[in-house]
Amino acid sequence: MEFDSVQQWLVDLEDRTETECMSVLQGKPLHTDGRNNFKTTQSINWKGGIDEISKQAVSITEQFDLLFKCSDEERWEELHQLSGHVTCQIRTLIQSSHQAIPQSTLSILQQQEQVIGECAKLAQKVESFNSRLCKVSLINQMTCLEQSFTHLIHLIITHLIKLMVKDLQVERNSAINLQNSMSSIISLSLEGENWCQLISHAGGVKSLLNVCVCESVKFAHVQSLRALSSICCLPEIIAQLEKEGGLCVLLDILCDDLQPECVKGEAAGVLAQITSPAIEHNHFIGGLMDNLQDLVNSLMGLCCQTESQEIFLLSTAAVANLTFIDSMACEYLAGICAPDILVSSTSTYKSQSLFSKDQIATILANMAASDDFHLSITRPGGINLLIDFLHISPSLYDTETEIAACERVLQKAAIALTRLCREEKNAQEILRLKGVPRLVELCRNADERCHSDAVLVASLAALRKVCMTCGNDSMATLDVKQLITPKLMDSFVMCSHSDENFV
């Protein structure tokens, strides 16, 4: 009998499923890859969540403006309907925040409760509103709700950015999360400086620098440097970069012969960004002076070796910015024959960008400020190159960005020529190469100078310097007396207020 029971059990076993066994099997990975040091985690689109919350918040803020307008104009029936719509939108946003944030913080949950409570109070006041005597109380309640809502949005966005930055911790995240986080940072930084501040406050600068130096994530070095360049748009963020040892990281990358060119190019881009003259009240980076020569040598080496237009532009931009910061940069450039490298590069593909020419003109103009470096500029044909830059016409370009770059090239080329004219042989060379007729054209033709007063002043100054150095007789046949005889201000006023050529 016992044998029959066992037999029956074995027969029944063929059609039975033990749920405990199935649960264990489902919980086991199908395979493991020992080569992958990253944890397999679900990829979360932080940027998408931030965008969705921000979009809804903007819409609700606009509704608040309408609420206050209805109150001012005493359109009570419309205000009654609109207040209900606003509270519904707020509840929808709170639901969206639960989806965007895997686990809300206590402060967010408490603020959500407060906002919902303020919504209820507003609904109660609107329902019981029956006299203009209650108007002040109603406005106060709408103000309280708006302030509570704004604080809630700040808490949610800040928390999402902290979670996004947390994904930059290479030891605890997957490669895809790391890349998604950096992509989100780059995208957010393009939307405004306030986003860059939030990323910096969340520890973004330090986390990105850690990615840059982590050997196990070399695939992410280019993207992390680009993200750093994107967020370093404010003096306080640049100061944070210096505090976290960012300059040393950049210097190590640029001076490391084993680093790929693409990584060096991005490091040059970060350096160009943090030294940009366009950033008002920029933070002074003390470490630059201590490492200036190494930086100049590394950047010019990159300019010489690369065939990429983008990397050449980033490298020359960084060098140009360094020449603004300290004149010693010009001395180091002269020591390694940098003008030779720059002049010879203009015949190659990598420097054909108008923006690269802008940087070359800047470097030569800043070097020309000192007589000590004039020979290093003129020897490889710098005057010829600068006159070629003068002949660049804005009519060849369509976008505002290109036309602005063209204006800068014309202005800086004229400034460089003016400085070089302190020596008579250089002024004579400008005459020989027919540079004066183009300077005259830039003064007389507003279209050719992008209608720029800066180009006009630089061109007038160059003409007068050539005349002063070579003598009036050398320019008598060129019909430029109207431009060089009056006072500079008189010539400027005459040229800037006339659309016709002089006869």
From TrEMBL:
Q: Which segments constitute the Protein inscuteable homologue C-terminal domain? A: 60-503
Pfam families in the record = Insc_C, INSC_LBD
List residues of the Protein inscuteable homologue LGN-binding domain: 1-32
In its UniProt record, a GO molecular function of this protein is: cytoskeletal anchor activity
The record's InterPro entries line, in alphabetical order, gives: ARM-like (IPR011989), ARM-type_fold (IPR016024), Armadillo (IPR000225), Insc_C (IPR045789), INSC_LBD (IPR031938), INSC_LBD_sf (IPR038205), Inscuteable (IPR039921)
A Gene Ontology biological process in which this protein takes part is: establishment of mitotic spindle orientation
PANTHER family hit by this protein: INSCUTEABLE (PTHR21386), PROTEIN INSCUTEABLE HOMOLOG (PTHR21386:SF0)
Q: What is the designated name of this protein?
A: Uncharacterized protein
List the source organism. Answer: Patella caerulea
Q: What is the lineage of its organism?
A: Eukaryota, Metazoa, Spiralia, Lophotrochozoa, Mollusca
